[in-house]
Amino acid sequence: MSKLYKNPPEENAEYLNQLHVLQQWYVFRSERTEILRFLERNPFLVSLLIEAYYNIVKYISHSLVSLEVVHDPEEFGTSQLIAFIATDLGPDEATDALSHFDKKWWLNSLERAQGKLCITLEFQ
User: Which helix (H) or strand (E) element contains residue 101?
Assistant: First the structure.
């Protein structure tokens, strides 16, 4: 269940603390301000990204996770945050690990993302 903030997200101390944590755990691949604005418009993603990180490292250890805002060129105004899990695992092992992550956590959390977050592998 996503959190509803009584004040705008940028005025909520818990939200700001969570943003600080995200900036320590994730690599911001697109412009930092673009990602922060996207999260401000979709504050429910902040706590979901914290949960996601715990589960990513649980199922796909030793991974670097990057965030990037991607805009759909076919649908104006449609954007999504992509979490790229960089791994040096072999393709079969990485795919199996992602499948386990999906089955144990992501598929149960997907609805909470409201179509605004995609989590995928990226091979190094």
Answer: helix 91-101
Quickly count: other Cβ atoms within 10 Å of residue 27's Cβ.
12
Phi, psi of 109 (to 5 degrees): -105, -10
Q: What is the pLDDT of residues 42-79, one digit of tens each?
A: 999 999 999 999 999 999 987 899 999 998 777 766 89
Q: Which residue has tokens 């996503």?
A: 2
Report CA torsion sign: 38, 42, 43, 44: negative
Phi and psi for 5 in degrees, rounded to 5? -95, 135
Entry pTM: 0.85
Place of tokens 């490292």: 57
Task: Detail the DSSP E strand segments found in the chain.
Answer: 27-28, 64-71, 79-87, 117-123
Alpha-carbon gap, residue 6 to 13, rounded angstroms: 11
Element (H, E) at 57: helix 44-59
Looking at every residue in the chain, the average pLDDT score rounds to 88
pLDDT tens digit sequence for 6-25: 455 556 888 889 999 999 99
Indicate the SS3 state at residue 79: strand
